[in-house]
Amino acid sequence: MPEIYLDDLAPGQLHELGRHTVGADEIVAFASLWDPQPFHLDEQVAARSIYGGLIASGWHTCCIFMRLFADGLLNRAAAMGSPGIDELRWLRPVRPGDTLFGRVEVVEVRPSRSRPDCGIARLRSSMRNQADEEVLSFDAAVMFGRRPGAGAD
Amino acid sequence: MPEIYLDDLAPGQLHELGRHTVGADEIVAFASLWDPQPFHLDEQVAARSIYGGLIASGWHTCCIFMRLFADGLLNRAAAMGSPGIDELRWLRPVRPGDTLFGRVEVVEVRPSRSRPDCGIARLRSSMRNQADEEVLSFDAAVMFGRRPGAGAD
After folding, report:
1. Which structural domain, as residue segments, surrounds residue A83?
2. Quick one: which of A122, B21, B120, B141 has the fewest CB in 10 Å?
3. Which of B50, B75, B90 shows the shortest C-beta gap to A83?
4. Is the Cβ–Cβ distance between B77 and A45 less than 8 Å?
5. What pLDDT does residue B1 have?
6. Contact A80 B49 (CB under 8 A)
7. Which CATH number goes with the domain that contains B111?
8. Tens-digit pLDDT profile for chain A (153 aa)?
9. SS (H, E, C) chain B
10. In this prediction, does ipTM exceed 0.90?
């Protein structure tokens, strides 16, 4: 049974999601499959790019966030997927050896009008590196089930 | 040398990006690494979810788009990464066996004021399935280098 339902979320809540350290091998392996641009694949070529060295694919950064989010919150919750996200920003490059810390802040909680058993939470999603610099931010809409018996009023 | 520079992009251009067919094994492998929610991992559990069966992680769908985008356009272009995306929507579930077709439409081309050698293109990004249903859409800002000698006026 889930521990966290829509009814347990409230604007202003902060959920810390744990950390992940990114290796060069992981950066190259991810990019080889999904984003084979030279500055994600080859240290020599990347050194001559505007980034001055190998950086992780922005989608890799999103995936690292997602894994922290699933392990740190969603898989203890009655989570039902997401219709989309807004204002995704890759704010700084992620480089080999960086340790990333995920966090979500609850911005809005809206029970569904048409489906009394669920609703949508808007979550400001963020990841920072070991220097406390924000590397990723976006607003996610996530569907959650309601606590059994809630929403009947 | 790149074939495509910022100067070669113009609003209204459509770029078809090829296709990819998604297998159940790929859906589960991706989700196991990056988005281990039950409806991405286990056909039996997924069958009892609101999705009625296994669906791909939304981030997996984004990654499939990114691979088509890199192979079909970016790796022939003077592409320099992206500061972010807006209005990302997962419009329909992606299921095992679906064939996805990527496309970008150029919406805006803006040379940089501070850096005469590059600029930003805004690209409406989209993926459709074999039934011509849109499954993913977002607006991406992508940096491109300018054709050597361009932008000096």
Report:
1. 6-22+57-145
2. B21
3. B90
4. no
5. 86
6. yes
7. 3.10.129.10
8. 899 999 999 999 999 999 999 999 999 999 999 999 999 999 999 999 999 999 999 999 999 999 999 999 999 999 999 999 999 999 999 999 999 999 999 999 999 999 999 999 999 999 999 999 999 999 999 999 999 988 655
9. CCCECHHHCCCCCEEEEEEEECCHHHHHHHHHHHCCCHHHHCHHHHHCCCCCCCCCCHHHHHHHHHHHHHHHCHHHECECCCCEEEEEEECCCCCCCCEEEEEEEEEEEEECCCCCCEEEEEEEEEEECCCCCEEEEEEEEEEEECCCCCCCC
10. yes
CA distance A39 to A60: 13
Contact B85 A88 (CB under 8 A): yes
Q: With beta carbons under 8 A apart, name residues in chain B contacting A63.
A: 33-35, 59, 63
CA angle B123, B125, B127 (to 5 degrees): 165
Residue at A151 is within a domain: no
Residue of B nearest to A91 (CA): B83
Q: Which amino acid is at B116?
A: P
A92 belongs to a structural domain: yes
Please give the tally of structural domains in chain A: 1
pTM assigned to the model: 0.97
d(CA B67, CA B63) in angstroms, rounded, equals 6
Strand partners, A108: A122
The alpha carbon of residue A118 is apart from the nearest alpha carbon of chain B, in Å, by 11
